[in-house]
UniProtKB/TrEMBL annotation:
It comes from Paroceanicella profunda. Residues 87-112 are annotated as: Disordered. InterPro entries: SoxD (IPR006279), SoxD_sf (IPR038561). Residues 103-112 have a biased composition (Polar residues). One of its GO terms (molecular function) is sarcosine oxidase activity. One of its GO terms (biological process) is tetrahydrofolate metabolic process. This is Sarcosine oxidase subunit delta. Transmembrane segments: none annotated.
Length: 112
């Protein structure tokens, strides 16, 4: 499987680390309450078909990507930089990427 990195071009799957549902980028803030935290941590969609996922280009440019992949066929339908994505969540706390503090420029775009 090859993933079309917007910065590096089509690259082998082994250069990337999958992090799961792209909804991870939209962590609720503390003011959202325990129900929102529970939903963020434990309630995830598991769709059969096109799905937006968060991937990290670990052995390449270190960018966070939103990869749209068909979970039935594993066909990659597209990829974009996570820093350019502002859809899929309504977090008052802003965007978040695992392993980086919220608001960090590396959280959604790569090394600075």
């Amino acid at each position: 499987m090859r993933i079309p990195c917007p910065l590096c071009g089509a690259r082998d799957l082994r250069e990337f680390t999958p992090w799961g549902d792209a909804a991870l980028m939209h962590r609720p803030g503390f003011e959202a309450g325990p129900e929102a935290a529970h939903a963020y941590l434990h309630l995830r969609e598991n769709p059969a078909g096109p799905h937006r996922e968060l991937w990290y280009h670990e052995l390449g440019c270190a960018a966070w990507l939103i990869v749209t992949r068909n979970t039935l066929t594993h066909e990659v339908l597209g990829a974009s930089l996570a820093m350019d994505d502002r859809t899929g969540g309504a977090s008052p706390a802003g965007d978040y990427a695992p392993g980086s503090p919220a608001g960090d420029s590396q959280a959604s775009g790569g090394r600075t």
